[in-house]
UniProtKB/TrEMBL annotation, chains A, B:
Designated name of the protein: N-acetylglucosamine kinase of eukaryotic type (EC)
Species this chain originates from: Streptomyces globisporus
Classification via InterPro entries: ATPase_BadF, ATPase_NBD, Euk-type_GlcNAc_Kinase
GO molecular function annotation: N-acetylglucosamine kinase activity
Domain (ATPase BadF/BadG/BcrA/BcrD type) ranges: 55-308
Keywords tagged on the record: Kinase, Transferase
Domain of life assignment: Bacteria
Entry EC number(s): 2.7.1.59
Amino acid sequence: MTHAAPAATHAAPSGDPAGPGAYVLGVDSGGSGLRVALGRLAEPGPLATTVCAEPVRTGPGGIDAGHLLDQLLPAARELLERASAAASAETRSDAARAGGASAYEVAAVAIGAAGMATLGERLRAELPGALADALGVRRVALAADAVTAYAGAVGQRPGAVVAGGTGMIALGTDLKEWHRADGWGHLLGDSGGGAWIGRAGLDAAMRAHDGRRGGSAALLDRLRAVFGPAETLPGLLYPRSDRPAVLASFAPEVAACAGADPVAAGILRQAASHIAEAAAAVCPASAEPDGEGGGAGEVALTGGLFRMGEPLIAPLREELARLLPGARMTTTTGDPLTGALRIARALAAGGLRLPRHPTMLFVPLEQET
Amino acid sequence: MTHAAPAATHAAPSGDPAGPGAYVLGVDSGGSGLRVALGRLAEPGPLATTVCAEPVRTGPGGIDAGHLLDQLLPAARELLERASAAASAETRSDAARAGGASAYEVAAVAIGAAGMATLGERLRAELPGALADALGVRRVALAADAVTAYAGAVGQRPGAVVAGGTGMIALGTDLKEWHRADGWGHLLGDSGGGAWIGRAGLDAAMRAHDGRRGGSAALLDRLRAVFGPAETLPGLLYPRSDRPAVLASFAPEVAACAGADPVAAGILRQAASHIAEAAAAVCPASAEPDGEGGGAGEVALTGGLFRMGEPLIAPLREELARLLPGARMTTTTGDPLTGALRIARALAAGGLRLPRHPTMLFVPLEQET
């Protein structure tokens, strides 16, 4: 299919990489759908956001670039038309000069996608050209979702982000290169993430059921309340295709038991230890303590995992203090969509300081200004 | 379909439950196919065995009893015909009296099946009648594969068996009831089994790849030799439907590294601890130490897991000595097929002492003699 390019009206002074009134788009493509944020180059924050509920398809060749565009372009055009109309209404003389036609400039788009690292070949090959054709976009960045999470949580400073949900991944940078730890999925790692915590809790419940050492009667009670008789759980879990999500659904039960149950508390302490290990592996050296009394590095926690609150955060604070005594732990509301918008804005302004990488942060059409 | 019953010739003295020349059949139905063993009631060991390579189908209603019979009956008839012909050739006058027709009596059949506990409803409902019709069988036992493993490894004495392969389950009995521990599959337990060991080894390899604490460079080398670059492993593993088997395929690599690599050795010690915990949970009280210097209980190890040898057996011996100081650990060559034949022979002779249970050991047609 073809995507017709609307006329792009340049309002920027000549010589400038993009006009201060130009738009930027941030995109977050994940398992629960595609989110798009529109912003102005010269203003912080998004003007508007929209959500396409259908997750982008992936096939043998990777993320389906056509399917992504089919959702992204109408959503982006609608956001741009609405913003242009609102801007025109404010400055009627400009609208009259433009003859009523929609007039906008999209200086940059940044797309963060789950699976970019392993599944993004077609995205990298097809998307930048298609966006240039369809929206007149001058600059495009394709990022792993961990990178947009980093940008949303830490910004363009050196540091580390831990993105925790069903899984768990840590990403750090000294602004020279990226360091990644874990994020290997529920069978190879994701240690300390939601599925890991839930699985450990169910293991402890089954131990209590069997009379094995390490069991927790409290967690067995919760297993029965949530899933029914313990011996029926394998028959419920294994036929499911979303087994990691089923395991992660038990993580809040572990947190709820941790106040009174030492086994549950031990699981969360172990999870905190694994999360701190991942953060310590990626946090840049400047954030580690030195002879002068410690660095000023930042470890930002982001994602649904940390909504578990103090039962996990309290031991994590202790483990981080032990492994990274110089670092400052923050919890953040800046999400991957915010991060994508930040990357787009920095790219448009010629100030993207995060390191480029073929699968972490790919900028194929970057041009000298 | 119908299964015509051949004429059964009774050679036993009247009043006896079955003639000493009667046959018994043991069946082991598992993931790699159906195995059938034929024996004589009054002689130890099998006369002959055969293998049907196609695993018995399971559907929403459980194990497919028709599919099992379609494979079992021709295999059993062939074994019986061959054995009868051989017996007739030895005693020609008997063969002449029988007029050349095949003449055999099947006193009992015992079928051990993986998934009996949760998937065996149709087996229990349909199989005994069908076997009576088709082979004139007088007694039928349906057993969980852990029970035939017990019978093969321990026999009819009190004790415990640990059956280890990709998974791990422990089963014990005091001859009054069964006690089961673990065997909950690779996400809920099977702690210390092949998939557990392999997964722990791959986790340690990925930790080394990331620079996280707890990593093993030796295991990372083995991961690369077996699977290729570490970062490609998730893409190889997660699309597979036999993920537990893929994980378990790495367990021998962990064992091979354990001599020189403390992380690998630690994984096997942890596995041994989990296995001992399961054995301790099911071993009957008489096998635990008492004031008189310890019981005489037996913990039998069976299954492919223990072919790993001393790297696992040595720490397991120590862990068992710690948790069950009175117990005697044995490794055994008696497999579930041997166990099924033993159960059939005991059932035919009226001497089955293992406890009956709806899903562990079901004897629907037991008759008084």
